[in-house]
Amino acid sequence: MKLYNGGKIIAGMVAFLIAVTFPFWYGRGKTVSPPDLKLDTPTIEQLKEKRCVEPAAYMRASHMKLLVAWREGAVREGIRSYTATDGRAFQVSLTGTCLGCHSNKDKFCNRCHDYTGSKPACWSCHIIPEEVR
Amino acid sequence: MKNLGISLFAIAVLVTVSVGATSAGWSGLLTIVIPYAALAVFLIGFVTRVFRWTKSPVPFRIPATCGQQASLPWIRRNPLDCPSSLAGVIGRMFMEVFLFRSLFRNTEMEIAGQRPVYGSAKWLWFFGLLFHWSLLIIVVRHLRFFLEPIAAWVNTLAAIDGFFEIGSPTLYLTDAALLAGLTFLFFRRAVAPRLRYISLVTDYFALLLIMGVATTGLLMRHFFPADLLAVKNLALGWVTFAPTIPKGVGPVFSIHLLFVCALLAWFPFSKLMHMGGVFLSPTRNLANDNRMNRHVNPWNAPVKVHTYEEYEDEFRDKMKLAGLPLEKE
Ligand code: HEM
Q1: Into how many domains does chain A fold?
Q2: Which of B138, B219, B241, B323 is most exposed, with minimal Cβ within 10 Å?
């Protein structure tokens, strides 16, 4: 079997294979554990039932939908209170409500956002309580 | 129409398989077995196919060029479109692979009155380029699921792509561009009668499959959020060879993933192999140096020749006797 320009083509193929399998090289020998999301804030510790605004599974995937709905409601229609599916009432506020319970933004929101590569651009306007103090 | 129908049917089958397998509790098959299998088929298939091409000899330079070749010093030459050196060839290949230069020359012929009239046709080039670049950027952006910590350049790329911060989560410009490109490429085939006539199942299927991938991806990002924490755990599991079956990633993700696996597994057997093939195009990757170097056909049969010198050696005495002129006494 004769190969024509075999050297160049094999070099190209090796480069291609290395590039395509890059994530495997990057992750070689590592054992990555998912981020440790801390729920041990003072406010949450005091809760009788450790529940979020909506069920945790919904929050994990869809909290941005909820927040956007809150924002649109508050800014455009002046709706300042939200009744959760289980009947509890919450004040519509990113800083006050979410960060009221999750006051450890660095160890909760940020850890997950860094892990999944999402960069919510809210904090150029909205306040992070710890940072003001 | 039949070809389009078959392609749509194949897409529907993939969706059904994905939804069916999820509800039958075969998530492991869908999220671990099939992805690894698809990647293996892609890598092995791709390399095998290129090796098959390596066995075809390319004896001669094919001067299908678009410029004046290097000849006499006072004739102005075109070093990029008719290169005679390696550097020129690299330049031409670069323009071809990254900017689709030969597609830029696409023309359109119409009969005006009795005569053919040629005009430039740049739409295919424009949307083709838009589509391919967007696809590349989207695939690179997806590395955020496969790398931990996420490499800085992946985040930078995402930040540039979402620069305008339209909506929440941000609309990526490449997503819009990809859909625009795909829509054009699809309607070009489906609407123009001459193109519909030459379009086969694979032509439609390639476009529809990538459209399916893009649509499910956009649905996940903007309408039915998937649990990206679980997705990233899954993807990191793949690359560290310790995958775990994710819980609750949602049906849209399952469809997205099966589409991607189908794309990977089908790739080496399809016209999508032009990804590797473009580098081996003889009209693009060979310098036009036919007038400078002699290229010998490698499969020339050994011809038995009897040169004049040998002839003279053989008959020198007799020729001398007959008084014939000789080259060598
Ligand atoms: C050929 C390969 C692929 C293509 C063309 C593709 C295309 C897309 C597109 C266009 C989007 C919309 C949002 C964005 O651009 O980020 C998207 C989102 C997404 N893709 Fe893919 N995808 C591919 C492979 C994969 C793979 C292998 C996975 C599995 C880890 C995956 C998981 C996701 C997820 C989870 C989202 C939602 C992201 C979000 O909500 O922000 N994709 N995809």
Answers
A1: 1
A2: B323
